[in-house]
Specification:
Radius of gyration: 20 Å
Structural class: mainly alpha
Number of domains: 2
Distance between the termini: 56 Å
Strand content: under 5%
Number of helices: 3
Shape: flat
Helix content: over 70%
Order of helices and strands: HHH
Length: 81
Amino acid sequence: MKKQYNFKITSKECHGHADKMIRKFIKMTKKEGIIEEARDRRYYEKPSVKKRKKSEKARRERDRQEQKRLRVKERRNRSNN
C-alpha cells in the first residue's frame, strides 16, 4: 500500500510570495522523501540490487556516524588538555 501525502501550502502562510511557496513545497517534499522515492521507482531494480544498495547505504551511514563520534571525542580531548 502506497503512503499518501497531503501538502497544503497557502498564500496566506507565505504572505503571497510565490517563491516562498515553491521553496516551502520543495522543502516539505524532500523531508518526506517523495522525490527520492520517485527517483528510485523510475526504473525497475532487481531485488538483489536493491538489497546491495541498501547494505551499502547502511555501511556509509555507519561510517559517517563513526567519523562523527571520533571527531567529537577528539574535540573533547583537545579541550581537556
